[in-house]
Structures are given as C-alpha cells and as structure tokens.
Amino acid sequence: MILKTDGRIQVFDKEYFETKLPVGKKSGEPLFKSFVKKGEVCYSVKFSTHPAFENVRIIIRSSIDSNSNNLISGSSGNNSIRIYIASKRKDGSIDYSAKILRWITRYPGWDERILDQLSMYRKIALATGFCNTCGEFRSIRRRKDKKYYFAHCFGESCKDGYTDLGEIVDGL
Ligand SMILES: [Zn+2]
Q1: In this predicted structure, what is the pLDDT of residue 90?
Q2: Distance from Cα 161 to the centre of ligand 1, integer Å
Q3: CA separation for the pair 67, 64 (Å, rounded)
Q4: Exposed/middle/buried for 129, CB within 10 Å: 0-12, 13-18, 19+?
C-alpha cells in the first residue's frame, strides 16, 4: 500500500510496488523476480519469451530499502526508481546498458511511468539484438558527445556495425 506522501513523493511498500509490475498476458504469472543489490530491492523483468533473450533482462531499481522493517521505498531526497538493461554473457559477466532515461520520480503516476519505460526498454532491447560474429547480446552505449544511443558489440574480433537507437529513445 501507499503509506504516506512525503512532499509529492509517495512512499509505498514492496508488496504494493509488485502489484504494479507486469504479469504474463495469458498466464497471469509475474514476469519479474526480485533480488537485492546494495541494500535496495531490485527486479529483473523478462520482456520476451523468445529463447534468444533468455539471458537479457530489464532491471528495475525500486528505491525500496531492503533493510527497512516493512520494505518501504525511500522518502523524498532518496533515490528514485531507475531502469536499465542487463545481459549475462557466456563467460558469466554482466553487461549493463547505459542509463537511457532520467530517473522516475515517485510522484503520483510513477506506476504508469514505469510501464511506459518498460515498453520503451523492450523496444530498445529488441532493436539491439545480437552480434553477428560472436552471438552475444550487443552493448547499449551513449555516444561521447551524448547525441545518441547506439548498439554495438565490442568483442575483439567482432565486426558488428553500430545501430542508432535514437529513434526509439527519442520517440517516447
Ligand atoms: Zn560480438
């Protein structure tokens, strides 16, 4: 439930937060799993049933303090909700995408903003796809001049091209 509003920021618990995360259209089963990272409850969200994407997930950092008594989100001044993409490589390492959008504030409507961003990240992940040489999920990075985001494989012998993701990112 929403416990209180601190300024305009809503403070909610883990149980309530999870009712706002996606479930399978047919199965109704959760498409997410929770884990704890640096004292924060996080979620990995499955966005495609295609086996190729088995090791790729959208990650949500919820701002919920895993050490708090009732697992509640931060109050104002604490971290907002952040979303990015992570892929597990064949050697077991994890590749994290550049953070594409601004943090999601916990002002009213944050639940819809999460779903909007999940939808956009799904499009980005599908457009990113896999390296033609080594088969790894490609990396998502922001160009140094910050003009646009791109997908590319940085493997040593990979000659994969750049895919400009700008159209998707700017389309939100
Ligand atoms: Zn490659």
Answers
A1: 93
A2: 10
A3: 9
A4: middle
Domain contains 154: no
Residues in the chain: 172
Residue 59, token pair as written in the block: 């990650």
pTM: 0.90
Burial (0-12, 13-18, 19+ Cβ within 10 Å), 104? buried
pLDDT band at 169 (very low <50, low <70, confident <90, very high): confident
Q: 135 C-alpha vs ligand 1 centroid, how far in Å?
A: 6
Indicate whether 153 belongs to any domain. no
151 within some domain: no
Q: How far apart are CA 171 and CA 166, in angstroms?
A: 8
Task: Please give the residue range of the domain that contains residue 108.
Answer: 2-131
Please give the mean pLDDT across all residues of the chain: 89
Does a structural domain hold residue 142?
no
Contacts of 37-46 with C-beta under 8 Å, sequence gap 24+, read: 37/61, 39/65, 39/66, 39/67, 40/64, 40/65, 40/66, 40/79, 41/14, 41/17, 41/65, 41/66, 41/71, 44/86, 45/21, 45/118
How many structural domains are present in the chain?
1
Residues with beta carbon < 5 A to ion ligand 1?
131, 133-134, 153, 155, 158
pLDDT of residue 172: 46
